[in-house]
Structures are given as C-alpha cells and as structure tokens.
Amino acid sequence: xKKKKKKEEEEEEEKKKKKKKKKKKKKKKKKKKKKKKKKKKKKKKKKGFVKPLMRAPRAERFHDVTSHARxxxxxxxxQSDRTDASxxxxxxxxxxxxxxxxxxxxxxxxxxxxxxxxxxxxxxPRCPGC
Length: 130
Prior knowledge:
Elements lengths: L1 H20 L36 H4 L3 H12 L2 H5 L3 H10 L34
C-alpha cells in the first residue's frame, strides 16, 4: 500500500514538474500602423480680372524701366537713331507708343527717358518705357 501511494505521489510530482516546465508562449504585440495625415487642399482664391503683367513674378514686374525703354528705342527707332539712343528717338517713340492716358510726370525725364522704377502692372498710366 505504502509503495503504491509513494508511486502515485511521485507520478503526481512528475506531472506537476512537467506542468511547470510548460511555459506560456508570449503573444507577440501587433505593431500599430501609423495613420497618414491627409494634406489639406488649399482653396484657390478667385481673383477678378488680373492684368497679365501682374501675373509675372515680382522680380519681373519691378525692373529697371530705363534700360527697358532704351531697348524699345533701339529696336523700334530708325537706323540713324539706333546708334545712340538720342532724346529725339525717345520723343519719336513716345509719340507713336503712348499710353492712353499719357504718362505721369514722376516717371518721365525731360528727354522722355523713364526716370524711376515703376511697377509694370501698377496703378496709373504708363509711358512707353514703363
């Protein structure tokens, strides 16, 4: 009887040991996927009529008017005037390429040369050089 009991006890102990040996498998944690942020679409501002010149980048809108006027003269003036951009050439040019409302005094030198840097698409009348 005692032997049987001992055997049973030993068997139980062995079973317990085996149970202890079995380790629980660790569950792998699933990595959370990062949600991509949606880019907000910028609303386009509706503009009224925009002068074509104002669509140009800033650097092109504000350029040296004087040299620009001189270039026009050199291309449109007669051959004799083209050699030296003389005041006469400017006056002749301004006669046939005049802005509809005339030219403001601020951008005009006495010889018709553009004197200041004026914004191309800016307000007010423009001379042929502007």
